[in-house]
Amino acid sequence: MAMEKCASLEELRQEVDKVDDQIVELIALRNEYIRQAAGFKQSVDEIKADDRVDDVLNRVRHKALMLGVSPTLLTGLYRMMIDEMVEFEISEFRNKGTF
Q: Are 92 and 35 in contact (CB under 8 A)?
């Protein structure tokens, strides 16, 4: 990731907006993978996968530390995202085969 050197606050805000757009696109892509995952699962307990959630949060925490970003911030964001995506996946799981 290369950061642009900005010459003004307006330019900086435009760059932040570009990053935000990329973040939203990546979250949408992650969500589509979660939709696919529902097709591979056999139960709601398998969807909840506490061990997998712990692995993801530990990986995110480690990456945050490597990049100098607050691990508390990132793990909190990921916890919220995972909780919402688990609910989405449960809904997809319960509706699979009913199309």
A: yes
Q: Give pLDDT tens digits for 48-99.
A: 999 999 999 999 999 999 999 999 999 999 999 999 999 999 998 898 755 4
Residue with token string 């699979």: 96
The model's pTM: 0.85
3-state secondary structure 30-68: HHHHHHHHHCCCCCHHHHHCHHHHHHHHHHHHHHHHHHC
| Domain boundaries defined on the chain | 42-99
Structure tokens given for 47: 């969807």
